[in-house]
Write a structure and sequence with these properties.
Blueprint lengths: L25 H16 L4 E3 L9 E4 L9 E12 L2 E5 L9 E5 L2 E7 L5 E7 H14 L10 H18 L1
Antiparallel strand pairs: 1-2, 2-3, 3-6, 4-5, 6-7
The protein binds nickel (II) ion.
The site of nickel (II) ion has 5 residues, from helix 2.
Length: 167
């Protein structure tokens, strides 16, 4: 396994739209394992392939406290959603920035697992937020897109400053 470099907002590669995965082979299983390791190491609760510059529909998530409930979602699709919740979000691609975003309270998501089996899962609360946040990444969206333009501009200049300091 290997740690993968994570793209940072506003990197234009975060805007690429991920393609569906047609063949779940060893390279996909390795990608999922590497992404999980990268997410746990960060540490974070979710990571989309887009964030490691692989433009395929693959997400890893673990919102459990013990970090022992890894979820790998391939070609995820939201079948239905209901309600609304507002929570504070952050993102490994937007380090140090947290803000409130409105999401559906409950989602029903359909996806393939690492064995290529079709799965369906109902999620609410934090898991529902995380699924929606990571699926945004696959569509080339970042959570700051949900914020006001003024906030987006502030975040860009804050991150540009950080990049200059760490470079
Ligand atoms: Ni994110």
């Amino acid at each position: 396994m290997a740690l993968l470099p994570i793209l940072r907002f506003p990197d234009p590669r975060l805007r690429k739209v991920a393609a569906p995965i047609t063949n779940i082979d060893d390279s996909i299983r390795r990608l999922a394992a590497d992404m999980a390791e990268t997410m746990y190491e960060a540490p974070g609760i979710g990571l989309a392939a887009t964030q490691v510059d692989v433009h395929k529909q693959l997400i890893v998530i673990d919102v459990s406290e013990a970090k022992d409930q890894l979820l790998v979602l391939i070609n995820p699709e939201i079948v239905s959603n209901e309600g609304a919740q507002v929570g504070e979000e952050g993102c490994l691609s937007v380090p140090g920035v947290y803000d409130k975003v409105e999401r559906a309270e409950r989602v029903l998501v359909r996806y393939l697992d690492l064995d290529g089996k079709a799965q369906q899962r109902e999620a609410d609360g934090l898991l529902a937020v995380c699924i929606q946040h990571e699926m945004d990444h696959l569509n080339g969206k970042v959570f700051v897109d949900h914020l006001s333009l003024l906030k987006q501009t502030r975040i860009k200049s804050k991150l540009a400053k950080q990049a200059r300091i760490t470079a």
